[in-house]
Structures are given as structure tokens and as C-alpha cells.
């Protein structure tokens, strides 16, 4: 069992404060500068695990997944529609955004 699977079981099945990091969470965290650009998913999970309050882990995890699936997508992020665009260091990086 990998770290993401373990964190999912702990958060969703056992209601424990763990922060799973999937591809969407990892991508959004890196794009927003919440973790270093070279951070891997394990480092991202450790960072969120240390910095997010226990009662905020579930809602933040779910919101980051939704944001990564619907707005901050891998290939064509919809930056003009992003509610976080004023905080995002990636806005203005390319003219297509």
C-alpha cells in the first residue's frame, strides 16, 4: 500500500486527519507555489500534513481535487475562470492563460 492509498483509508474510512495527495492535488499545490516545483507527491503530502489543521484536511483535499479536475486541469488550465488567479504565480506565464 502506497502513501496515497494509506492516507485515503485513514481519512475516508477511519475519519483520521490525513492528507492524501493525488495527481490533481499535487498539480494544484505546485502551480500555486504551495510546495516547491520539484517536490514529489510524498513531499507534498508531508507538507500538507504538517501545515493543515486536522479539521480542514478533508474539505481542503476535496476542494483541491475539484479545482484540479474542473479549472486547473493538466493540459489546458482555465486560468481566466480561476477564483485563485490573483494568488497564482502562474498567471501571465504564457499568453494562452
Q: How would you describe this protein?
A:
The protein has helices at 3-13, 23-31, 41-51, 57-70. 46% of the residues lie in helices and 0% in strands. It is mostly helical and 97 residues long. Helix 2 packs across helix 4. It is globular and about 40 Å long.
Order of helices and strands: HHHH
- Tell me the distance between the termini: 38 Å
Cα shape: globular
Helix content: 40-55%
Number of helices: 4
Number of domains: 1
Q: Going by CATH, what is the homologous superfamily?
A: Helix-hairpin-Helix base-excision DNA repair enzymes (C-terminal)
The CATH class: Mainly Alpha
- The overall pLDDT, averaged over residues, is 91
**Which architecture does the CATH hierarchy give at level 2?**
Orthogonal Bundle
Structural class determined from secondary elements: mainly alpha
Number of strands: 0
The percentage of residues in β strands lies in under 5%
Give the structure's gist in a few sentences:
The protein is mainly α and 97 residues long. Helices cover 46% and strands 0% of the residues.
Write a concise keyword list for the protein shown above:
mainly alpha, globular, Endonuclease Iii, domain 2, single chain, 97 residues
Describe the secondary-structure layout.
Layout: H1 3-13, H2 23-31, H3 41-51, H4 57-70
Helix pairs in contact: 2-4
Amino acid at each position: 500500500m502506497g502513501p496515497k492509498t494509506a492516507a485515503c483509508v485513514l481519512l475516508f474510512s477511519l475519519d483520521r486527519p490525513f492528507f492524501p495527495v493525488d495527481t490533481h492535488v499535487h498539480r494544484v499545490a505546485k502551480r500555486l507555489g504551495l510546495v516547491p516545483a520539484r517536490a514529489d507527491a510524498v513531499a507534498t503530502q508531508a507538507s500538507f500534513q504538517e501545515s493543515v489543521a486536522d479539521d480542514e484536511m478533508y474539505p481542503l483535499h476535496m476542494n483541491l481535487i475539484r479545482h484540479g479536475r474542473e479549472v486547473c486541469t493538466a493540459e489546458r488550465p482555465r486560468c481566466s475562470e480561476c477564483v485563485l488567479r490573483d494568488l497564482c504565480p502562474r498567471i501571465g506565464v504564457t499568453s494562452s492563460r
